[in-house]
Amino acid sequence: MGQYLSTTSSYPIKVSSEPEKVTPPQLRRFDASDPKTNASEIISAIHHDGGVIIENLITPQLASQIKSELKPHFDTDRVDLSGFFPATTQRASGLINISPGCRELATVPLWIEVANGILTDRYSYWHNQTLIECETKPVISSTVGFRVTPGGKQQALHRDDTDYHNTNMEKPVMVGCVTALTKTTKENGGTVAIPGSHKWGPERCPYEHETTAAELEPGSAMVFLGNMYHAGGGNTTTNEVRETVGMFFSRSMYRQAENQYLMVPPGVAKEFTPQIQRLLGYGISLPSLGFYQYKDPMQVLFGVEDEETVVM
Predict the structure, then answer these.
(1) What is the pTM of this model?
(2) Which of 48, 44, 91, 51 is nearest to 72 (CA)?
(3) So which cofactors does this thing need (predicted)?
């Protein structure tokens, strides 16, 4: 998430009253190593609850490999200036480029089948009197690793679909897959989520007592819709570190028709005005769509800091 350097106005939204405090349901668990586990059953559970736990999505050996590959990036991360990530959370981004293990994780057949089953779009349109039918599969929206150290505070409960300004609860834009690299518990900062919240309208706000924690062994994952409320948990331990890696896929059509980053690459775009650079898509769409290494690309690539710069 990001915010303007300058002050922005807001408008009030009427929210519902606080719901009765009851024990939240647990997310259903599936075992990827079980031959009877199938993607269609997982997809059905995700549509019903908003997310699931998939145990043994990758091997502990692959989880350990990814952990080693991300270590230097965690070690050199800077503090998130926007405050969305607590200072005790260290991040690594652009994982497809820096981690062979993450490339393997991104293409695990069961995960791909689940993501395709939820986010594939089929569309029909007329060319004169000919009906054309097309199908598009999801693409990577972002890849990021998280290391939550002792004393880390919980994130604010949020929806990842917020980046796309999506209020259509029947059609989520994104699916996330957060895989544990270390043993993940409620106490050391495991992701918390609100089952069923993917069906809420925009007037319904989330509360902490509605959450359940995704506790995972290394190699297991929480897979969830982009419109389910969730948050990185707080690490209340004194000596445990929680490390996870997130693969976030989105519907394929949410991008520019002409790829401006290839048509006008940064080396060319740097000669243009900030207005042209933002028209090309190098700026941030609030809350945080289009970031680069958790920074505003306009700062990183062109040194632009003005009233439209977003702090991340």
Answers:
(1) 0.89
(2) 91
(3) Fe cation
